[in-house]
Design goal:
The protein is an all-alpha fold. Helix content is 63%, strand content 0%. It folds into 2 domains: 45-117, no CATH class; 139-251, Four Helix Bundle (Hemerythrin (Met), subunit A), CATH 1.20.120. The chain starts with a helix and ends with a helix.
């Protein structure tokens, strides 16, 4: 009996330990599902940068980096959405051109940076660092005055092209439309260089409306007053008139 009682005592001590050992067994690991970030589309300009065929692209990106220098960035350091705006500005300023074929000039690079990122201005600088003449106007005042006259020319030329019954040789009409668009490009750049940010919106509107007019005329065989239509003509006249007034306000009193 004494031996049997000892066996019962030993069993009572060991059984709880075994139960604890079984309940303390580690649970099976749970694998967490990680959400992988969606792959971003490669930058077409950076792809063009690679290889011997990208020599023009590399030259252009170097030119753009110089234009972006005052902003404190380079093209590769820009966020994805701002790089997209730079590419869109390139297409707007140079329609039909490609970064791998067209060589971007320094003024064009500055205009692209301006259209994409807005004006960069140093406090107190408004005259393009142009030479000053005693009793005369700064170089930028003269540039803005010239651009105001170009805006006035665009206004009157658009109205003349849209005048019903106006008949001129097609080459002359197309030449006027292309000259209007070229002047508009120069005004976008000039407003940036000469610190007239108030003219940016109107200058871009003139650039877009004149480019649309050139495309519409080239796609038609009709005279300008028929192919452009009254709405296009009035839009060009309205924004160019507003741009002329903005340039004169920016220039200030003579």
């Amino acid at each position: 009996m004494l031996r049997f009682a000892r066996l019962l005592t030993v069993a009572a001590v060991l059984l709880p330990s075994a139960a604890v050992t079984q309940t303390a067994a580690p649970a099976a690991p749970v694998l967490e599902r990680r959400t992988m970030p969606a792959p971003t589309e490669p930058d077409p300009w950076l792809i063009s940068y690679v290889g011997l065929s990208g020599r023009t692209a590399r030259t252009n990106l170097t030119q753009l980096d110089r234009a972006l220098g005052p902003y404190g960035v380079s093209y590769t350091r820009l966020p994805v959405e701002e790089r997209a705006r730079v590419r869109q500005a390139f297409d707007d300023l140079l329609p039909g051109q490609r970064i791998t074929r067209h060589t971007v000039t320094e003024p064009q690079a500055r205009a692209i940076a301006y259209l994409a990122l807005g004006p960069w201005e140093r406090p107190g600088v408004r005259d393009c660092e142009g030479p000053r003449r005693r009793g005369g106007r700064t170089r930028c005042d003269q540039t803005i005055d010239s651009m105001s006259r170009q805006a006035a020319w665009i206004h009157s030329t658009a109205l003349a092209l849209g005048r019903t019954g106006n008949r001129r040789p097609r080459a002359q009409e197309l030449g006027d439309l292309r000259a209007m668009n070229q002047h508009a490009r120069g005004m976008v750049l000039g407003a940036s260089d000469c610190g007239c940010p108030a003219a940016r919106e109107d200058a871009e509107a003139v650039l877009a409306s004149t480019r649309d007019a050139v495309d519409a005329y080239e796609a038609s065989s009709m005279p300008a007053w028929m192919s452009l239509g009254g709405q296009r003509v009035q839009r060009i006249a309205r924004v160019s008139d507003s741009l002329e007034a903005t340039f004169l306000r920016c220039m200030g009193p003579a």
